[in-house]
Amino acid sequence: MLEKAFIGERKYWILVACLLGIMGVGFIMWLWQFRVGLGITGMSRDVSWGFYIGQFTYLVGVAAAGVMVVLPYYIHHYKAFGRITVLAEFMAIGAVSMCLLFILVDLGNPVRAINVILHPTPNSILFWDMIVLNGYLFLNVFIGWNVLTAERKGSPPPGWIKPFIYLSIPWAISIHTVTAFLYAGLPGRGFWLTAVMAPRFLASAFCAGPALLILLCVIVRKTTKFDPGKEQIQTLGSIVTYALILNVFLFVCELFTVFYSQIPGHMHHFHYLFFGHEGHGNHLIPLMWFAFACMTAAIILLVPSVTRRNEGILTVACVLVLIGTWIDKGLGLVVGGFVPNPLGKITEYWPTVPEALITLGVWATGFLIISLLYKVATSVKVEVGAGEA
Amino acid sequence: MNAILSLILSGGVVSMLVAIPLLGVWALPHVFGIHLEWLFGIVIPYFAVIIFFVGIVYKVVQWGKCPVPFRIPSTCAQQKSLPWIKYGYAEKLDNPVSTAGVVGRMILEVLCFRSLFKNTRVEFGSGETITYKSAKWLWLGAMAFHYCFLVVILRHLRFFTEPMPFFVPIIEKVDGFFQFFLPTVYQSGLLLGAALTFLLLRRLLDPKLRYISLVADYFPLFLILAIVKTGILMRYVFKADVVSIKELTMGLVTFRPVIPEGISVIFYLHIFLVSILFAYFPFSKLMHMAGVFLSPTRNLSNNSRIVRHINPWNPPPKYHTYEAYEDDFREKMIEAGLPVEKQAASPAAKE
Amino acid sequence: MGVNRRKFLKIAGISTLGAAAVPAANALAMNPIEWLDKQLGGFTPSEILLHMGHKPTGLKSREALTAKRWAMVVNVRQLDEEIAEACREICHKIHNVPHIKNPKHEIKWIWAEHYEHALPGQYHEHIDENLKKLPFLVMCNHCFNAPCCRVCPTKATFKRKDGIVLMDMHRCIGCRFCMAACPFGARSFNWIVPWPRAEDGKFEGKEPPSPEFPTRSKGVVEKCNFCAERLAKGQIPACVEAAQELCKKKGREPALVFGDLEDPDSEVRQVLRSHYAIRRKPELGSKPNVYYIV
Amino acid sequence: MADIPKSWKVAPPKAWNLTTPEELVQDTDHRRYTLGLEKGWLRTAPDVEIKKGMHCHAALPKRLEDVGMPNPRNWSVMDEDWKLPKNWKEIVLEGFKDRLERFRSFKLFMDICVRCGACADKCHFFIGSADPKNMPVLRAELFRSVYRKYFTTAGKVLGPIAGARELTTDVLKEWWYYLYQCTECRRCSVFCPYGIDTAEITLMGRELTNLVGLNIDWIAAPVAFCNRTGNHMGIQPHAYKDMIEFFLDEIETIIGYRIEPTFNRKGAEILFITPSGDVFGDPGTYTAMGYLMLFEALGLDYTWSTYASEGGNFGLFTSHDMMKKLNAKMYAEAKRLGVKWILGGECGHMWRVVNQYMGTMNLDLAEGSKMEEPVSPITGTKFENAKSTKMVHITEFTADLIKHNKLKLDPSRNDHLKVTYHDSCNPARAMGLLEEPRYVIKNVCNNFYEMPPNTIREQTYCCGGGSGLNAGEDMELRMRGGMPRANAVKYVNEKYGVNKLACVCAIDRAVLPNTMEYFVPEVDVTGIHELVANALILEGEKERTIDLRGEPLPGMEESEDV
Amino acid sequence: MYDGGKIIVGIIIGLVLLTFPIWYTHGMAPKRPEVKLPEKEKQCVQSKEYMKTKHMQLLDLWRDSVVRVAQRSYVAPNGTKYDMSLQNTCMSAECHAKKTEFCDRCHDYTGVVPYCWDCHIPPKEEPKEKPEEMH
Predict the structure, then answer these.
(1) Is D223 on the interface with B (CB under 8 A)?
(2) B296 and B289 in contact (C-beta within 8 Å)?
(3) pLDDT of the residue at C206
(4) Which of C107, C125, D203, E76 is 20 to 30 A off residue C198, Cα-Cα?
(5) Which domain holds residue D138?
(6) Which pLDDT band holds residue E126 (cuts at 50, 70, 90)?
(7) In the prediction, which pLDDT does D235 show?
(8) Is residue D555 part of a domain?
(9) Residue C141: its pLDDT value, please?
(10) Considering D181, D203, D221, which residue would you say is the last residue of a domain?
(11) Does residue D554 fall inside a structural domain?
């Protein structure tokens, strides 16, 4: 089946070439970082995680979203999603691969990455994150590939794959929960020290992931002979709507707790992000407001079924959701947690150019994986005659 | 020769091969005081390398002496025909009509094992259904094996060159990118062992493969596995005096052979097995390394309708000529109103 | 060869049932984890495996200072800029802590903070003006319940039996989870190569001041180690020594006191008995082993 | 009519002595060899059971005498004694050596196989029979083992340890049995990492067995006929013309007027050669009618030849020399008639010969003729890809016509058909003719469906009866070999309701009807030009009510009664 | 030979690649490196043979022992105790005072690039160096 990734039209190869080009630039930058150290990034003693970990956190959400398709299909027998489970799983593969790569480029000593396995440490959440991420990658590769193979052969998926599929559902929840626990269990970081961290992560995952899937479906429909289907996209749209509302709701809960209790250790971070702490203005303030403007706009567009059913508007709303959640989680979450630092001091963070290029390179890698896999999936779908919706 | 017998035989032979240097370098000096390091460290390696080179060249020349009478490429895609029939990059590579296409096809074949990449597996469903599943494991195993082997060989240049060429340290660095253990474990070595094990298990577990496998299939697998194992053991467990080893290997390569003191028997074991592999190479299926370049179904372009291919031994044509044919059927032909060359061959033509 | 084989047999002996009689008897006296720990000489089985049959045959040297739980008391009222600077300087010197100008990439083991940053929760505007000016020496608190050790995915940072929280710079993968977990900002990361070297291995620019203590590679986290290497040689931490000398000169009570918290007669216990001491951020429950007398 | 061997008559299914398709499929137990305890294949030759229904009859002595092939005699496969010449071993080994020296492919393929097994389940005969010796690798190993024994040092010294074995009569019988269970379709060579082509080995093997008079009548007879009468069927010139006249009658009833092609006409622009199967056997005859109608519509200046009245070449299944001998007539006739180029009909191995061998072997014969690079007289298209051999495939020709809008077509006349296309192995894997036939079909039919991708194009499956195995007596073999193809047809039949299997090969048209009847009775076999002629609107034709097979066209069912 | 040109070129390319070490070294083998052993100290922590092949594992053991178990004294087979320290014991003035004359000789010869010196400080090799500095 993989050979289908090597046969495509000009447009496809241009896309692949572009992604490879970006990856190349990112790789060269990474080589530089590997040689010189993480000092080429904008991170610092006080903001010791930055863009990389932010992207990782965001993409874990995107990856977990596969469950929003798999669960209705396999548990609730929502047949329509049968057309796109493979797309969701393949998107998850790309997203998890990016997650792993982001962790790898964030390591000060990537050459020692194996230490996590050589010296297993169950009390470290990062150790569990390693397990759940790799496990999720394996599950999706395994399930996605086998299901697609079966589809191509024209036979139902083998029976032994079922347990893996059922396992993948809680597993998808787990990758996001465990990632939330990375943050939520740290004493002295008031921004993160909240029990709704995991639910918030899940809510934002379940709106960002399906939103990206909608966009990918629209692209697939436009560029291939496979149509993921109108109903499928609409159902995903509803999922995005509810999850987005939940996401904003949980954020409001957070705001209430923090600002009504007025506990400084928790409040200062929000102050910093949205108003500037103690007179420190920063790059993030407009972005954070923009993010919430995006999400609000998206809610306004998505809640009325009239607008949501319009696929053009739905697409715009999905883009808004992606931008909003991306700023919120990819930047605000990490930086907000580190500023002000435990001593109450402020060190600003903004990604540097090399850091951004490496980030872009990883994104390109992920999208290359998604492109190749989608090429395979859509070719198979067309081949078995599932082209028409 | 069934699978079990083949396994016993090839396993036995490799065990014997392991025993020889053990006896020669370890037991003999202890028991009889005879030292045979020069035999295992110098004579046999030289001998093996000579066999290797002479054997390969001889074999290739033998192949070269056979003509390629016909142009018989497997055409795995649309031919180049009418200008509006799609003949894109995939077709140019799979059904090449130009030299460039052939070169591309050979590069893909030799470097990427393209044909193996196409592999499928037949599966029988319920009733009469037969389905096909893409089966890339063999391709993956073969790629892993060959490329790891290449990396391992290139890494060994550190024993055969001084100063080392620039690429050796780079390869070592990349190969040992993930640092663990001391000395740092080379990922290629582990992968090589894993790939070999996979290839071996394949032969043992798939009934089809078990049936077709011969001693000549198990033997190189066992031999290379033994080489890999002795190499890994030497590097990580039993340890050998690397400086002395390099002195020996440099002596070999500069034709000033020496046997330094203090090289442990594991090294002689390793180099003896490698020598066996070298000497075995030209007489075995391992010659596919050179043979793949000469395969007429892959290295020819599909252009014999466009350009005449020459068969050096093309015999003169002998066929039933039209004249003979007309002689046979002239009357019936005339009767049927078919034109003939000689209207009235016999005066007794019926009116 | 011989030596090695003997060692090998020793290890093998431990793992065989036949030789297990004596250890088994011992085992009854302790819990299985302790027993295993003792058998393995403090190493985990995977570490033993990595050493391929080499069992550590090390000993504690006789002159080493030992304790059940090391602790330090900082008497802030006895500190002044000079003492604080001396502590910082000697520490950074003997540990080859590089002096990096860019505050973002700075590496600090011990340094002076203002009250409001050292104890942000206890700060108010009307506090003793004197206290506001005093240099609060801060460093790793060697927490009894250290969040950094909890989060480290490789046990690169770990708590020794004597309570010292250490960094194994050979093992750190540079994930910086510990920095996120430390509520005291006591950890520094090597964002750049701290002591750059040329191709031939010579130091570029400045050489590290102490040839006895290793430098660090880029990409690892480091912090105060309570001078574990000095304790092993029977010396108290360098900052304590420097501070005590200077205080003596100035005729003050020692500004820094170091000792075994579990030993009722130790100097730290005596000081803590006689002074009101607090710890930083006690509400987080990390139980620091550095006490402040304010 | 002409003298046709009785064995060619296809026996009705009941007489095939076969079980049901389901049982046949389930009989293929691919896990039979599970323990590794059974005898290794090197030692199995004496026990080889030559099964009824899995082989063809031996050649009659007359066939061999006609063309001067060695050791003509009456013998039977079931006999213990195959009446070999006394020095058979010498002859075979000498022949072996000779071929090793003359064919690099043979020598190389003897040396470099690593027995990776990639080819194993690619062979339709292996899939259908589960006989391990039908794995391409093992079929070749039957020869390699002997090669090792007599031509390599290791084999001479180590014997079975080196995978070598003596050439005995048992081994020779085993050779013969499995040589004629291979249709030389080349599917295995697509997957071989070194491009080892079992067909090459089978070709050599058949040459070797022919040296001692081991062959099958179903190949030897056509060869003998073709040599004398110009075609495999043994149709003599007047009968050949009669057959075509019969088609003309049929066409007259369909289109309302009579067309008049020419035979052996000197000075024609184009010589048309098609396999005689098209002229003789259904459903190929409808394809032949299709050609006639197409050429009529174009007003093409062409001629048939009764001398070069055979496109196919059973010489390919005998020996390279025989192939050359039979093929030579094409150029000889083209030169005699003074045509500019040759147009070739729908045929499988004919095109393998044309593409891979014809120019090399026989182009000398065209010297001094009027032949030139083919140009379509209708569209003016130069067939540059046939510049040297000067022979154009009819689907190339027709596709070009359609592309240039030179044909008036009404594809709705084929609306009652749901068509799938079977790539015949030779044009697919020894030529690369994949798109042209599809282009033609898609323009003359509205309902076209592809079979699963692993069964078409370069991965297409043989019909099960190629390379001369299309006899009646080996029906079980044919059904087993045709199983993968039939399975794919059944798939599209069940999924899309496909009822027509188009192909561009006369052997396919002869073999597949039986296979379809057995596995997928709903599906009929057709040539592409039958479909073309059905859709083709000829000038001055009467309103069509029936198709070429005399069956009412869609919407014309009632008018039949009128 | 048929296609002789191509085949011979192929053989030559193959031979050139496979004989790379022979023509690359063109018969010049540098002498086996001799390490400079300490003048005064004759006894290492383990036998010479042991150290030759296993020093890296010993050092690895040392570092774990020192850093993680706080056992810093190494008991040699003959009962002598040593401070487990690469910088302060092995590379001390009495023993292998010069990295370039000891470690590097073999490492360079066999292409080994240990990462010890990424952190650990090799002794200064200026002739003026005073041994007192080591205390």
Answers:
(1) no
(2) no
(3) 83
(4) C107
(5) 10-31+38-221
(6) low
(7) 86
(8) no
(9) 95
(10) D221
(11) no
- CATH number for the domain formed by residue range(s) B3-135+214-326: 1.20.950
How many domains, chain D? 2
Answer with the residue of higher pLDDT: C85 or A387.
Answer: C85
Chains contacting C with at least 3 CB pairs below 8 Å? Answer: A, B, E
The complex's ipTM? 0.89
Same domain, residue pair D174 and D77: yes
> Which pLDDT band holds residue C55 (cuts at 50, 70, 90)?
low
Contact B236 C52 (CB under 8 A): yes
pLDDT in tens, D88-143: 999 999 999 999 999 999 999 999 999 999 999 899 999 888 888 899 999 999 99
Task: Examine the domain organization and report whether D201 and D242 are in the same domain.
Answer: no
Give the mutation candidate from E31, E112, E118 for the B interface (greatest B CB count, under 10 A). Answer: E112
Give partners of B (≥3 CB pairs < 8 A): A, C, D, E
- pLDDT tens digit string along B294-315? 999 999 999 999 999 999 999 9
So what's the architecture of C70-293 in CATH?
2-Layer Sandwich (3.30)
Sequence-ordered strand ranges (E) for D111-212 = none
Do D253 and D212 have their domain in common? no
Q: Could you give the angle at the alpha carbon of B151 between the alpha carbons of B145 and B155, nearest 5°?
A: 140
Backbone angles phi, psi at D552, to 5 degrees: -60, 140
d(CA D542, CA D529): 20
Residues B271-290: tens digit of each pLDDT: 999 999 999 999 999 999 99
Contact between residue D53 and residue D17 where contact means Cβ atoms under 8 Å apart = yes
The arithmetic mean of pLDDT across residues B173-198, rounded, is: 91
For chain C, the structural domain boundaries read 2-50, 70-293
Delimit the domains of chain A by residue range.
2-383
D308 and D200, same structural domain? no
Split at pLDDT 50, 70, 90, the class of C54 is: low
On whether any CB of chain B is under 8 Å from the CB of A159, the answer is no
Locate A92 and state its tokens: 């998850």
Same domain, D217 and D277: no
Between these two residues, C96 and B347, which has the higher pLDDT value?
Answer: C96
* Whether D491 and A154 lie within 8 Å, measured CB to CB: yes
In tens, the pLDDT along D463-515 reads: 999 898 988 888 889 988 998 999 899 889 988 999 999 999 999 999 999 89
The answer to whether D491 faces chain A, any CB pair under 8 Å, is: yes
Classify C140 as helix, strand or coil.
Answer: coil
D558 in any annotated domain? no
CB A187 within 8 Å of CB C284: yes
Residue E28 forms contact with B (CB below 8 Å):
yes
Best probe of the E interface among C1, C3, C225, by most E CBs < 10 A, is C3
Residues D192 and D242 in one domain: no
The Cα A363–Cα A26 span in angstroms is 10
Instruction: For the domain made up of A2-383, give the CATH fold.
Output: Formate dehydrogenase/DMSO reductase fold (1.20.1630)
User: C198 — contact with chain E (CB < 8 Å)?
Assistant: no
Q: Which residues contact C72 (CB under 8 A, 6 or more apart)?
A: C142, C226, C237, C240, C256, C257, C258, C268, C289, C290, C291
Structure tokens belonging to residue B159: 């024993």
Could you read off the pLDDT of A113-141 as tens digits, one per residue? 999 998 888 899 999 999 999 999 999 99
Count Cβ atoms below 10 Å from residue D14 Cβ, excluding itself. Answer: 7
